[in-house]
Amino acid sequence: MIIESPITQINQSTQAVIDFASVPENYKQLMPENISKFELTGNQSFKFALQGMPEFELKLIDIQPQKILLSSASEKTPFQLSLLLNSTAENKTNAQFVFEGNFNAMMSMMIKNPISNFLGVLSQKLGSL
Questions:
Q1: pLDDT category of residue 103 using cuts at 50, 70 and 90
Q2: Are strands 92-101 and 8-10 parallel, antiparallel or unpaired?
Q3: Rounded distance, CA 80 to CA 97, Å?
Q4: Which residue among 33, 100, 105, 109 sits deepest, i.e. has the most Cβ atoms within 10 Å of its Cβ?
Q5: How many other C-beta atoms can be found within 10 angstroms of the C-beta atom of residue 105?
Q6: What's phi and psi for 95, nearest 5 deg?
C-alpha cells in the first residue's frame, strides 16, 4: 500500500528542509493537534501516538540530498515514510511524504483515511515552516 501526501511548496532551500527533517525532535512540530504522545527514543528515533491510534516508533535510516527515509521500528507494523524533496528555485522546495507498507486488505481499508489525513497534516505543517 502506497499513500502520498499532496505536494507542498516550502519557502526554504532543500538543504534547510533536510537539516530540519534530519532531527527527530523536529517532527513534534509537524504532528497533528490530536497527538497524545511524543517521545525521543534515541539519537535517530522517536515514538508518537495520536488519539484513537496505536503508538508508532520511527527511526531515521537514510538521508540523501532529495530524500529522507524513516522506517517503523516494529516488526508488527512494517512500513516506511519517505520525505521527497525537489528544489524549484533558490529558496523554494517542493516536498511530499510517501507512506509505504505491506498490510492485508482489511487493515489497508481501515488505515487508509487516517494515514492520508496524517500525511496531509505533516505536509501542511512542513509547508508553513
A1: confident
A2: antiparallel
A3: 10
A4: 100
A5: 8
A6: -130, 145
> Please, how many CA atoms are within 13 Å of residue 24, restricted to the half-sphere of its CB?
19
Residue 77 in this model has a pLDDT that exceeds 90: no
DSSP 73: S
Q: What angle do CA 120, 63, 19 make, to 5 degrees?
A: 75
The C-alpha cell at 125 is 505543517
pLDDT in tens, 56-66: 999 999 999 99
H helices of the chain, in order, are 14-21, 105-127
pTM of the model: 0.93
Q: How far is CA 58 from CA 18, 25, 42, 68, 92, in A?
A: 17, 11, 10, 12, 27
CB neighbours of 102 closer than 8 A, spacing ≥ 6?
Answer: 1, 78, 79
- Where do we find the cell 537514510? 62
Q: Which residues are within 8 A (CB) of 109 and not within 5 positions of it... i.e. 6 or more apart?
A: none
The grid cell for 63 is 538521508
Q: What is the identity of the amino acid at 20?
A: F
